Amino acid sequence: MSTVRSRSARRAVPALLAGAALALTACGTGDTGSGDAGSGGEPQSGGTLTFAVGSDAGCVDPQQVGSNDTIYSVRQLVDSLTDQDPETGEIVPWLAESWEVSDDATSFTFHLREGVTFSDGSPLTAQVVKDNFDAVPNLGALAGLARGYLTGYTGTTVVDELTAQVTFGTPNVQFLQATSTHSLGLVSSASAALPAAERCSAGIVGSGPFTLAEYVQNQSITLDRRDGYDWGSSRWADGEARLDSVVFRIVPEAGVRTGSLQSGQVDAIGSVGQADEAALSGAGIELQVRANPGVVFGITFNNARPQFADAAVRQAISLAVDRQEIVDAVFPTGTLPATSVLSSTTPGYTDLSDGLTTDADRAVELLDETGWAPGGDGIREKDGVRLTLEVLWAPVAGTNQPALELLQQQLRAIGVEVTLREQPIAQLLPTLQAGEFDGAWGNVTRADPDILRGSYSTQLANLYRLPAGELDELLTAQAAAADPAERADLVAQAQELLVEEAFTIPVVELQTTLGVSPAVHELEFDASSRLQLHDTWIS
Fold first, then answer.
1. pLDDT at 287
2. Residue 290 CA to chain centroid, in angstroms?
3. With contact defined as beta carbons under 8 Å apart, do 151 and 454 qualify?
4. SS3 letters for 111-150?
5. How much is the pLDDT for 274?
6. For the chain, first and last CA: distance in Å?
7. What is the pLDDT of residues 113-163, one digit of tens each?
8. Where do runs of H (alpha helix) occur along 331-439?
9. What's the pLDDT score for residue 1?
10. Fewer Cβ in 10 A, N or C end of the chain?
11. Spatial CB neighbours of 25, under 8 Å, sequence gap ≥ 6
């Protein structure tokens, strides 16, 4: 049995990291995650941080939100059993002071901190942990990440008031890391009992350093400091959050976000694009940068569409993509082209750049061989059907549209017509579930390679209608591999198969680039490149 015990309430403790032990590192220009925008002196309490983001997911329940723009805010409402060090990948104490993991990774026993309360006054107990994990499988489609983390869940036993034992029917080595994510952040038992839709619209009661003060859909999310908070992650400073409040304004236009930061109307912005870097730096704005772990940005096909069920067509499209050209033309300084389905900062990443080359001539040969012949306007046809790829995308990052427009040009050169279908982030998942798309542009952030299973296993949501087969076997096996070396090998094989079969076309690693006023200090990234605002302060 693997055992982890805290040395103190404020010291990080080595833990079993599910997967290959790769450090999560920062890259790019500007600040690389220290979170200090300047020498502001001693930390101060008080003030309001105003942060502009590009979109609203239409939900303020952390267990049901998957869009970074909304995760930034709702992450502050809930605490997790564990935290993950963004530099080492190490799992460290948070609400759980210590834990034990069975040798076969089917049982996880957590020893909770005393004195933790939710904002409705109810205490954190082992029963609350049970209520949360029992409720997650019934939350529905929006909770896909959380439900995936609990695959094989057989129940939680309340050993005593502050000890909870979580068990699975089969080994689930990724679960310990999953307990550090926002998706398994704990809500009160009363919130866990609410219908999923009500949790989304009205919000939840958490034990986090901030509470939800107001949510106006597509306009703003306002948080207030939680009085008396004193049970933060072992990586944080002691006590309450330093800010009085945080306001997240929804500002879809990148230029308006940039102008608002330059003029002092907001203190920080998300989704900084290459075109705005020089203007912001010239105005004394710091660019705070970190590469996201997880599945990279790319296009994943709907395999139920006959033309994209053909591996040769998918492979031809992959060969036509010039990843470096897209990165150089569109993305912030320091962004890397994709070299695998996983980003290079993800535990278990395998460099598959040799299989993600650009070869337009070979792409043309593949399409010719499969009977797709150029039509009068250059777009290929077969049996009276044009080779058209409609790409579904959401405006959650300013780089999405220009990247897709350049990709559109690259694919037209080999006779593939790309049309772009924009949808609000809140409507994206229902469209994917309905199968009303040819391909979808997106990424998924998580600092564990099990994100591949959540995205591509036919035994889970299978939004992309992949056929059952060898990939399922690899993804299921890695989730059960308690030996890190064995798991790393299985994860590598899964990445290789995804690239070889071109079920998805990796294009670019997501790099989170924030614009931060010099007056803002200790605005930090967590291991998944999302915000941690407990220690943030304004001078």
1. 95
2. 13
3. no
4. EECCCCECCCCCECCHHHHHHHHHHHHHCCHHHHHHHHHC
5. 87
6. 48
7. 999 999 999 999 999 999 999 999 999 889 989 999 999 999 999 999 999
8. 360-369, 400-412, 425-434
9. 59
10. N
11. 87, 291, 345
What pLDDT is stored for residue 482 in this prediction? 86
Those residues of the chain that have pLDDT short of 50 are: 5-39
Q: For 495-527, give the DSSP string.
A: HHHHHHHTSEEEEE--EEEEEE-TTEE--EE-T
* Chain-centre distance for alpha carbon 34: 20
Q: Where are the beta strands (DSSP E) in 161-277?
A: 163-168, 210-216, 220-225, 245-250, 268-269
Burial class (CB in 10 A: 0-12, 13-18, 19+), 122: middle
Give the CB-side neighbour count of residue 358, counting CA atoms within 13 A.
Answer: 15
Q: Nearest Cα to 350, choosing from 481, 493, 448, 506?
A: 493
Instruction: Give residue 23's pLDDT.
Output: 29
Identify the H or E element spanning 445. Answer: strand 439-445
Model confidence pLDDT, tens digit, residues 407-447: 999 999 999 999 999 999 889 999 999 999 999 999 999 99
The tokens of 401 are what?
């549209």
CA distance 78 to 186: 6
Q: Which residues contact 456 (CB under 8 A, 6 or more apart)?
A: 464, 466, 471, 475, 494, 498, 503, 504
| pTM for the predicted model, two decimal places | 0.85
Beta strands in 40-186 (DSSP E): 48-53, 82-84, 91-93, 96-101, 107-112, 153-160, 163-168
**Are the C-beta atoms of residues 293 and 447 closer than 8 Å to each other?**
yes
Identify whether the C-beta of residue 4 lies closer than 8 Å to the C-beta of residue 98.
yes
SS3 of 5, please?
A: strand
pLDDT of residue 396: 85
Q: Rounded to the nearest 5°, which phi and psi values hold at 520? A: -100, 130
As beta bridge partners, residue 524 has 532
- Helical axes 311-320 vs 360-369, angle rounded to 10°: 160
Name every residue whose Cβ is closer than 8 Å to that of residue 428 and which is 6 or more positions away in sequence: 392, 394, 440, 442
